[in-house]
Amino acid sequence: MLLLISTYLGIHVLGVPDQSRLKRLVPSISTFHTQLPLRESFLSANAKHSIAARRFVPPSFNDIRRILNTAQITAIAPKLKLITFDGDMTLYDDGQDFEHDSALVNLLVSLLKYNLIVCVVTAAGYPGDALRYEQRLSGLLKGFENARLSKNMCEKFFVLGGECNYLFQCKEDYHLKYLPETKYQPQNILSWSSDQINAILDVAQENLQRCIDEMKLQCTVLRKSKAVGEYLFYNMKRYEEQLDECVLSTQHRIVNYLNSPWGKKNDLPFCAFNGGSDVWVDIGNKLIGVQILQQFLGATPGETLHVGDQFLSTGNDFATRHQCCTLWIVNPDETQGVLLELTALLEAKKSERSLLTLLDHSKILLDSQTI
Ligand code: IMP
Ligand code: MG
């Protein structure tokens, strides 16, 4: 495996990734933004989950996902600058708010204290409405206040809503402030016209409605300025397959429209995804969201880490894989686990740096005494 990856990395640098064996075996393989210490990571997972000692249960999908997460954390910790989090099912349960007593509060505060830029990149789109995001993140913002985070640290916390459309920065009063698009969005995004946006959303809405009618789903459709979604009536049972059908057929319908003579001039990116109990089509996606943040805040793909739960092809975190390193978690408890691993490494790095500074100072002192 290690050999497959390192050959792939080498061939990637030469610009001919199709010639690698790994690419032939897994055609959908994405970019590796860092090396991955898989051996060490396997040994640590093995110590916890007895993978090699199991005789009837082979390594599972979850074993592999966790091994890759640990390897990615180890590889990126020394150079991490920007860490982005999905919202629903990553920081809080679906449709819920960030709890005041969530164990994640202290961990996110620690990340800011380690001087990292922290950003929530969520599909939830409330155009320019800082209060709505403050409400969903209330437990976290309260935690910042309790920890008396300095102005400098507060301003390293951002929220990017609607996948890539609405950016907010935390201010020293522990409130979010909306940043006008002209401040951070590149020209090609600023030029998205409402005609282009509405044309895609019309096609999406028509298809979502068709799915609802044909599958007799107990759903309501909601249209926003840059999104359209369908969500189940309160307490209705959801069937993953029906939601996936809505996503895949809507993706297909929009792509057909964009390739048709009527849609040919419309090249806006979109994201159709299964949110667990709803289906949404947003204009833009998290790949663009992460890219915008990297340009605005100064971080490369190898210095950026996105933590999310939706990495299947019908999920909305999937797109970030092309733009940065990623951790695939399945619930907020796992987010806590990966952050404990990460902060332990950041602490070790900090202690190492303090020790080096101390050694440097002692050397200067000794040198000056020798003179
Ligand atoms: P994420 O997991 O943080 O990206 O949030 C996805 C969830 O946000 C969806 O499953 C919806 O429940 C919710 N949501 C609220 N408004 C929007 C919107 O405008 N577009 C997409 N999702 C939305
Ligand atoms: Mg999510």
Automatic annotation (TrEMBL):
Pfam families in UniProt:
ISN1
By its UniProt entry, which InterPro entries does this protein fall under? Answer: HAD-like_sf, ISN1
Its EC number is: 3.1.3.99
| Recorded GO MF terms | 5'-nucleotidase activity; ATP binding; magnesium ion binding
Spell out the reaction equation it catalyses: IMP + H2O = inosine + phosphate
Determine if Cytoplasm is one of this entry's keywords: no
Alphabetically sorted, this entry's keywords are: ATP-binding, Hydrolase, Magnesium, Metal-binding, Nucleotide metabolism, Nucleotide-binding
Q: Which cofactor does it need?
A: Mg(2+)
Q: Name one GO biological process term.
A: nicotinamide riboside biosynthetic process
Membrane spanning residue stretches: none
Q: Which family does it belong to?
A: Belongs to the ISN1 family.
Subunit record text? Homotetramer.
Instruction: Name it.
Output: IMP-specific 5'-nucleotidase 1
Source organism (scientific name): Rhizophagus irregularis (strain DAOM 181602 / DAOM 197198 / MUCL 43194) (Arbuscular mycorrhizal fungus)
Q: According to the entry, what is the taxonomic lineage of the organism?
A: Eukaryota, Fungi, Fungi incertae sedis, Mucoromycota, Glomeromycotina
